[in-house]
Amino acid sequence: MTTTNTDSNTVNNNPIQTTPIQTIGILGGGQLGMMLAESAMQLGYRCIFLEDAPNCPASLYGKVYSSQQLEDFVKKADVFTLEFENTPVETVQWLQQLSTDSDTDEDINTNKNIDNEFSKKQGMYPPPIALEIAQDRLAEKSLFNQLDIATVPFLSVSSRGGYDGKGQFVIRSNEDIAKAWAELGGAVTGQGNLTSTPAPLIAEGFINFSREVSIIAVRGQGGEVRAYDLVENHHYNGILAKTQAPAIGTSHLKQMAQTAISKLMNHLNYVGVLALELFVCKDEHGNDTLLANEIAPRVHNSGHWSIEGAVTSQFENHIRAVVGLPLGDTAIVHPSIMVNVLGEYPKLVDVLAIDGCHYHTYHKEERDNRKIAHITLMPTDTAQLKERLAELVSVLPNKVGESG
Ligand code: AMP
User: Fold this and answer.
1) pTM, entire model
2) CB burial class (10 A; 0-12, 13-18, 19+) of residue 205?
3) Given a cut of 60, is residue 76 above it in pLDDT?
4) Mind listing the domains of the chain with CATH numbers?
5) Which of 207, 240, 293, 302 to mutate to test the pocket of ligand 1 (most atoms within 8 A of CB)?
6) Is the CB of 288 under 6 A from ligand 1?
């Protein structure tokens, strides 16, 4: 049994639609949600968003429901996905339950106290387990080990209480250990933010990587996995500043990255787009190898280049997967470089005066280090890349993008 929406905001009688889905409910309403909605609209689907900031980027593309309006949001959507990885796992579990085939109507109506307006939804993608793992660094590392995916060596360090932060602390000397514990562990010294949920710390080996790369792939409802090329990422103050696609000179690592991401997606029975961040470093024989750092169970900033640079963008492929349509080709159509605009907008006229620039604003207010837009360049060769990138950086107020 399926429900379709008769809400006047939804697209009706779409002649090419092959699934009974009309409205996609997205948890989160940031720029990722906005770009997902752009792709969804192109295919004839409408998106709505669960987001507490009413003027979020996605609000230009569909109705925004606050967390107080969760029930209305759920009733109006046929299928669910997310663009924000700190979404509470319980919400995602509940949404998945609404679409579990094994539930009978009786279960839904009585045991789970869910009325007919909630039943039956077409799915929650990605599955809650992917979110749980991405929110728990120890679980993430353990999964890499379990699946034989080489990762940064780590050690679980239990703490008496727990710390609800996501802080990192680089330890360079013995004295730093006490400082790190005081800041992150909290329990021993009584400092830090203690919470009722125990969250053990983990100590990771410091990796002298030569480059940071990532791979993005999409998995469809039938289990097909299609991966994009490896891309190289450069950061500024810990924030992604620039992505180059493909990552030059990494063809010998591509298979390893694709095998790793396929294993992860198949193991999690994942549907949609997943990103895997990796370090390039040397193995014991001095050869290049990859170490997995972390996963992001959603479309990812290092995949924005694919809007112009790939046959099918990561956003369109995620929507295709979520609604059960065939996946699109992930091949690169043109080498690209994506630069994030952080904090302050450049003059549009200056950006567009550079040949081959694609500008994407997120309609956000300026704020220090905030991602407010991105620009993709599509140079024909390395010489042109250097020239165009230098031109672009020169018109960006904080010159982000020149590193690396
Ligand atoms: P993460 O929150 O894991 O994405 O880490 C943010 C950044 O910190 C990464 O992009 C790396 O530049 C750096 N980093 C994280 N873990 C390590 C590590 N084990 N060794 C060296 N650098 C790291």
Assistant:
1) 0.88
2) exposed
3) yes
4) 3-102 (3.40.50.20), 128-205 (3.30.1490.20), 211-395 (3.30.470.20)
5) 293
6) no
